[in-house]
Amino acid sequence: MKQWIPSLILLPIVIWLVVNQGDFIPLLDHFNLLIHEGGHGIFGIFPKFLYTLGGTLMQIILPLIFLYYFFSNQKKIGAQVSLIWLGQNFLNISVYAGDALERKIPLLGGNKVYHDWTYMLHEIGLLQNAKGVGYFFFGLGVVVFVIALIVPLLWKDYETAKIKLNL
Question: Distance between CA atoms of 19 and 55, rounded to whole angstroms?
């Protein structure tokens, strides 16, 4: 039962994030914005579509790097927190992607910059489905939250499989 305490502590956070549907969380969202903008810089050597996608990709890649670190070093709570961070980023992405058609979200750089998701969805012919794309990312975030909360169950199976394989 002790292994479920982190999940019980994280549960109200997950519920709050889902109920508030990716609402602005000042410190975390400013940090994620830095990661997003840094992604544009890192992917700046690629064509415009990949450059534009780079911001969102970094919001996914960085939490996955932390998840890999904590998982490979058998730090269960760190893995759970990394999954919560990844899920929160998916909620953040859902708001941005869902706004592609209406473009109501204020952008860093004001009117001088283009909306990443408006450009990307237009390029792939899905701009009219922006809300659906937003719902997809929201659902992905919820799935990641559920995985984060059931890590103790998954971790037990992982440990059992590792023992059976003599790893």
Answer: 25
Whether 133 and 97 have beta carbons less than 8 Å apart is answered as yes
Distance in angstroms (rounded) separating the CA atoms of residues 118 and 37:
16
The pLDDT value given to residue 124: 98
The H or E element that residue 4 is part of is: none
pTM (2 decimals)?
0.91
What backbone torsions phi and psi does residue 46 show, to the nearest 5 degrees?
-95, 170
Query: Position 116: which residue type?
Result: D
For 46: left if phi > 0, alpha if psi spans -120 to 50, otherwise beta; the answer is beta
d(CA 93, CA 133): 10
pLDDT at 5 over 80: yes
